[in-house]
Design a protein that fits this description.
The protein is α+β, with helices and mostly antiparallel strands. The chain has helices spanning about 20-30, 40-45, 85-90, 105-110, 120, 145-150, 165-170, 220-230, 255-260, 285-295, 295-300, 340-345, 365-375, 390-400, 425, 445-455, 460-475; strands at about 1-5, 35, 45-50, 55-60, 65-70, 125-130, 135-140, 180-185, 190-195, 210-215, 235-240, 260-265, 270-275, 310, 355-360, 380-390, 405-410, 480-490, 495-500, 515. About 25% of the residues lie in helices and about 20% in strands.
Length: about 525
């Protein structure tokens, strides 16, 4: 199986990487206590047992969770995976340099003050391993959906005392069906089978190909041309990333290509984050003015039109359970309301305009989005300077508050389809951190923080998700972000590809654990 992509993986270390594309990849080489299913639609976002025999047993009112490991689990060298290795892997999330990925372990699991991970602080006493197959987590507070949390990449097991500094970014230790055979950062990566992976212990991964090979750094237009042609080895290839380029959309409407085309909502929201610590963005009226002024129609056009995206109004996308449909800053056709924006700027004493710096990724469509923001705000005398950052390091850069500028175009995808994975990570002011920060707006609002706690304490998940839908609207009154669009994945696969479907849990990309080749001899 070949994968052609322009963007390299952020990190091979699962404690560091945290985006839909790399999380999809992680499932090939790593396993966690639970994982998302392998199916299109809701079947894919349902949580399934993985290393554990079930999705966990709560006690103490939901503050303690116990998991039992399956028998016969092994690393790529044949060593057994026990509860001690799971504990060690999880505790790496507290390392200040390594633990910049998924935040849920640190947010939810109780830990001593000042704990800095296993390398600096040693054992984490709030995770107990009474025997080789039992692991018990003590949480800071009850959490009804902890069985979904342990599907996060930070719950990957590793042998004790391994993985310091950048070790796993160079040479991971596999627990899944594949292991890294070769890796040239930014150029290529090859996976071979992990002979110690036992399919009898794994009800999720099909692991059909014998090998996976990634080619990184390809131009998006080049990938499109190769996938459309589908010649030679490219017949056994898929494209990574966000699918075809905007300019290619019109070319894939022929019957032959439509048979090889996959499309659907990614389950993510692309948004303009406004840094509320920067003047004059520290004033709510200024942020609301920007929310009114942004032309969302041109944002959709920038990524390829309605075939590739639809305009966003709320923070949560349509795929999230409990999502509320509303539009707090409406305008005709989504083209912006400059009159409303000018009134708000007048109230804020900013009618004379100002300058802001906008962080964007080094991708053509992102450049087009940045220019569209410039054009939308220019009539308000707001001068937007574009700061282009390499795609491979973009999220790490904007997730470091000391490196943040005034605004950034970015996106968020749910770690599972719940408001719990959308709103608290982005807007809980108590979670703002020096590295790996997801609250790009740096919003720290007492009312929002308190409501997050109230919702998290709910034991009924349906009521909880409905409450997050209401919180979405409460947050948008403060305008810390401008929802721009709900993007769609549109991609062409090779003619020899079989079993490909879009997974709602991994940014709408092709689920790597199920895809295979129709005729292996053609590869």
């Amino acid at each position: 199986m070949r994968v052609l992509t322009s963007v390299a993986f952020s990190h091979l270390d699962p404690a560091r990487g945290f985006d839909g594309g790399v999380n999809n990849f992680y499932r090939l080489i790593y396993r966690t206590l639970t994982t998302q299913g392998a199916a299109p639609g809701k079947g894919g976002t349902a949580i399934r047992p993985d290393l554990a025999t079930d999705t966990g047993t709560p006690s103490d009112g939901g503050k303690t969770w116990t998991f039992t490991l399956k028998k016969g689990l092994r690393f790529q060298n044949g060593d057994p995976i026990t509860s001690a290795e799971v504990k060690f892997g999880v505790s790496r999330a507290w390392d200040p340099e390594i633990g910049i990925g998924s935040p849920y372990a640190k947010q939810l699991i109780d830990a001593p003050d000042g704990y800095r991970g296993p390398y600096a602080s040693g054992d984490l006493p709030t995770i107990k391993t009474p025997d080789a197959r039992t692991i018990v987590f003590q949480l800071k507070k009850p959490y009804a959906d902890f069985g979904s949390v342990v599907a996060q990449p930070t719950f990957v097991p590793f042998p004790k005392d391994t993985g310091g500094k950048g070790e796993f970014d160079r040479k991971p230790i596999a627990s899944g069906p594949y292991q890294v055979a070769s890796y040239k950062r930014g150029a290529s990566l090859t996976l071979d089978r992990n002979e110690h992976w036992d399919p009898g212990t794994d009800t999720v991964r099909k692991a059909l190909p014998d090998h996976f090979t990634w080619t990184f750094g390809l131009d998006g237009a080049t990938i499109d041309e190769r996938m459309i042609a589908g010649q030679g080895n490219d017949a056994s290839a898929i494209a990574g990333g966000s699918g075809i380029q905007p300019a290619t959309v019109a070319r894939i409407q022929t019957p032959a290509l439509r048979k090889r085309t996959l499309s659907g909502l990614t389950g993510c929201t692309t948004y303009l984050g406004l840094n509320t610590t920067k003047k004059p963005l520290d004033r709510v009226a200024v942020r609301r003015a920007i929310a009114y002024a942004v032309n969302k129609a041109t944002q959709v056009d920038a990524v390829g039109g309605t075939a590739k995206a639809q305009q966003a109004t709320s923070i949560q996308p349509p795929t999230v359970v409990g999502r509320k449909k509303y539009d707090p800053y409406p305008s005709e056709g989504g083209k912006g309301d400059l009159a409303a924006a000018r009134r708000l700027l007048g109230e804020a004493g900013a009618r004379g305009g100002f300058t802001l710096t906008l962080d964007i990724r080094s991708q053509p469509y992102m450049q087009a989005q940045g220019v569209a923001i410039q054009q939308a705000l220019a009539p308000l005398k707001i001068k937007v300077t574009l700061n282009t950052i390499d795609t491979a390091t973009y999220y790490e850069a904007i997730g470091t508050p000391s490196q943040q500028h005034d605004a950034a175009i970015t996106g968020w995808c749910p770690d599972w389809p719940s408001g719990a994975t959308f709103l608290p990570p982005l807007f809980d002011g108590r979670l703002i951190s020096a590295k790996g920060n997801q609250n790009l707006a740096q919003l720290d609002d007492k009312g929002v923080n308190e409501r997050i706690d109230e919702i998290a304490a709910m034991k009924d998940l349906d009521a909880q998700n409905a409450a997050y839908g209401e919180l979405d609207e409460q947050i948008m009154k403060l305008a810390p972000i401008v929802p721009l669009m709900y993007e769609k994945y549109v991609g062409v696969v090779g003619g020899n590809i079989a079993g490909a479907y879009l997974h709602a849990g991994f940014s709408g990309g092709i689920d790597l654990v199920s895809v295979g080749l129709a005729d292996p001899d053609r590869s």
